[in-house]
Amino acid sequence: MRLFNSRNYRLWAAADLVSVTGTWMKVLGVNWFVLQATGSTTSMGLALMLQTLPILLFGPLGGALADRLPVRRVLLVTQAAHAVLSAGFAAVVLFGGHLSWLYLLAFLTGLVSAADGPALGRFGGMVSGPALLSQALANGSLISSTGRIIGMSLGGVVAATAGPAVLFLANAVSFAAVIAALLAMRTSSLHQLAAAAPAERGAVRAGFRYLATQPTVLVVLGVAFVLGSIGRNYQVTMAAMSFGPLSGGPAGYGVLSTVFAAGTVLGAIVVGRFRELRLQLLVGAGVVASVLQMVAGAAPGLWSFAAVLVPIAAAAVIVDTTVSTRVQLDTREDMRGRVLAAAAVVSALGGMVGAPVLGALCEAIGPRETLVVAGAIGVLACSAGAVLLLRRSAEVPVLAE
């Protein structure tokens, strides 16, 4: 694979795997600690919301900073900040700090992520270059899925034997791998993007004005929002099915989560085989995931439901990777940070909106019916997106790449 001929990419991929593994260990650690301290899933959800909220509030500003500042330096600062905050989580556990300290740290983590996310995306493009960006994002999906499986599996053992503080410390150390990779890279081999945006007032507004002139990107983000909220909040529907009609309980939910993670690995492998990730692939994978979601609603037992989850998870990864690729390749390089920030806001908003809506639907009409309704909405959204994109096919060359 051409990407791995690059020393910079090998360093970046290795650091990414270590960092993602540490991040999922930390996610498990937060959930474990909050549930032990409160016994409340609502409190656990609050911690998650506090990490997401800053991305909604300050993500566009983070994108503007990523377009303006040298991203390698930004990442050195943000990765160090993440390491300090993760060590702070460990201190709260070890020294018996009040839960409010953990909530504060969760919010600060989200604040750093608001600047960190767009910078990571922009720097990833510098490591791979535009010709290999699709391949790099596909590899990134595989790394994320693998890191999630390793982090959750290893984290469960560590949490049970040594406690959540060790998970937070391991996450803090994982950021050192990214910092070391950044320092070890050959800057002369990085692919330089378009000149960074000059310092100016209204850089965030300029980003929104630019997006308003990119109807294709807006359609892609709109489809991604629907699929990511109503169509694809699987953690909610998997839990509702396992604890409801499938009678799987906690053990069944664990099986479904593991199967879903395995499906994301399969999806990352499949998407890596495409030379180009076109808009048609986004629509097609979205329709497949949505139709299969409707089929899952009729699954008679736990294992039949799990079997349908595998291609659903694979299609979800194809959708996410194609969205990430298109919003970068189909927009100006000097606006890339702000576009990536907008995509992150859409993703975060989809999670925050979709989870409670799906939860309410599961309670009101039942988990099976919710899956059917959500799948139907996904099909409609993809169909509407396809119609809008076809109307622009004469104006948007990317559809015929």
Automatic annotation (TrEMBL):
It is a multi-pass membrane protein. Keywords: Cell membrane, Membrane, Transmembrane, Transmembrane helix, Transport. The keyword rRNA-binding does not apply. This is MFS transporter. InterPro entries: MFS_dom, MFS_trans_sf, TM_effector. PROSITE patterns: MFS. The chain crosses the membrane at residues 12-34, 46-67, 165-185, 206-231, 251-272, 279-296, 302-319, 339-359, 371-390. It is found in: Cell membrane.
